Structures are given as C-alpha cells and as structure tokens.
C-alpha cells in the first residue's frame, strides 16, 4: 500500500512540477532492524517496484539511503534502476565501492555524530582524506557526504573543516580516479 501510494505521489508530482530526482530513504530496512531473509521477502520486491516506477515515470533514476547495516543486501542493488546508494557511517565505504562501484554512484559516509558533532576540526579533516582515499576512484563516481543527517548542533568549525578538506583533497576530482588533491600531500 505504501509503495503504491508513493508511486501515485511521484506520478502526480511529475505531472504538476515535472520530472525530478527522488531520494528514497528506508531506515526500517536496515539489517539492524530486520534480517537479510526479511529484507529479501518484505523489502526487495517493493524497493524494486518503487525504483523501477520512479525511473519509468520521471526518466530519472532515484537514489536510496538505508540507515544502519546494509552490506548483506548490496548485491540486491546490482543492475537495479537506482542511480546511487548512500550508506550509513557504520559501513566501510571502500567495501561499498568494491561491491557496487561498477554499478552506480556510491555516497557516504562521514560519521555525523562520532566525528562531525563530537570531534575536532583536525580529526574531521583526516576523516575526509581517509574516505576520499578509500572511495574517490569509484568507477561510477563517489559523493562524499555524512553517513546520515548532520546534527543541528554540529560545530561550525567542523563543518568548515569538512568543506575545506573536500576542496583541498578533492581538487581536480574525476569519476573513476583519485583526485589530484590527494597526490599533493
């Protein structure tokens, strides 16, 4: 029922506003909440139906973010109609690159609380570098982002450090290659 309602929303929205990019967030499908078997039975068919329908209606492949553990379902997304997969910070971005990097853009996964909120700007800077080293050469592309939503009280110094580090280490980024900013260090 929820899948059908969402598809109807996408149809109406697209008729009124036009085709646009949709992000599907599905925190309940985390393997911290359900098992792989439950995912395959209760999530996968509806996730496929929804992503295929969004792509058919809009002509634009949607993205997906699932909070928590997802590594055991990454293979489910190979060959799907998703444009990118966003992971929570508890997953290894390098492993995601190795699993899905040939199929779609990967996204993530600086820790919004453990790093951005609670640590210092230099640690944020180092984490940005580490994540870029692990995933920036992903064959279909990589988007460095928080593993989930950044917290409201994140210190501005940490956000500034994050942005500066992305600009420095990500300099001259090119899909499928490590950015030149990493080699200058």
Task: Explain the layout of strands and helices.
Layout: H1 2-16, E1 23-25, H2 36-58, E2 63-66, E3 84-87, H3 93-100, E4 105-110, H4 112-117, H5 121-135, E5 142-146, H6 156-169, H7 180-183
Helix pairs in contact: 1-2, 5-6
Helix content range: 40-55%
Largest sheet: 5 strands, parallel
Order of helices and strands: HEHEEHEHHEHH
Main-sheet strand order equals 1-2-3-4-5
Low-confidence runs of at least 5 consecutive residues: none
Q: What gyration radius follows from the Cα positions, in whole Å? A: 17 Å
The structure class reads alpha/beta
Terminal CA distance reads 52 Å
Task: Please state the oligomeric state of the protein chains shown.
Answer: single chain
Could you tell me the strand content as a percent range?
Answer: 5-15%
Mean pLDDT metric: 94
What is the number of beta strands?
Answer: 5
Q: How many alpha or pi helices? A: 7
Q: Name the overall outline.
A: globular
Q: Can you put this structure into words, describing what you see?
A:
The mean pLDDT is 94. The protein has helices at residues 2-16, 36-58, 93-100, 112-117, 121-135, 156-169, 180-183, and strands spanning 23-25, 63-66, 84-87, 105-110, 142-146. Strand 3 (84-87), helix 3 and strand 4 form a beta-alpha-beta unit. A 5-stranded parallel sheet has the order 1-2-3-4-5. It is built from 7 helices and 5 strands; from the N terminus they run αβαββαβααβαα. The protein is of the alpha/beta class and 185 residues long.
């Amino acid at each position: 029922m929820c899948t059908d309602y969402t598809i109807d929303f996408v149809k109406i929205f697209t008729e009124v506003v036009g085709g646009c990019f949709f992000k599907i967030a599905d925190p309940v499908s985390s393997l911290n909440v359900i098992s792989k078997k439950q995912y395959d039975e209760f999530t996968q068919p509806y996730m496929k139906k929804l992503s295929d329908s969004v792509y058919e209606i809009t002509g634009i492949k949607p993205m997906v973010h699932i909070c928590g553990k997802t590594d055991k379902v990454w293979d489910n997304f190979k060959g799907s109609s998703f444009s990118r997969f966003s992971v929570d910070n508890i997953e290894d971005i390098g492993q995601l690159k190795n699993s899905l990097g040939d199929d779609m853009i990967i996204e993530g996964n600086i820790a919004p609380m453990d790093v951005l909120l609670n640590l210092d700007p230099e640690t944020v800077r180092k984490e940005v570098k580490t994540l870029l080293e692990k995933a920036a050469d992903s064959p279909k592309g990589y988007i460095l982002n928080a593993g989930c939503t950044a917290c409201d009280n994140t210190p501005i110094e940490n956000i500034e450090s994050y942005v500066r580090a992305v600009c420095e280490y990500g300099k001259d980024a090119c899909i499928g290659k490590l950015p030149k900013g990493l080699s200058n260090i």
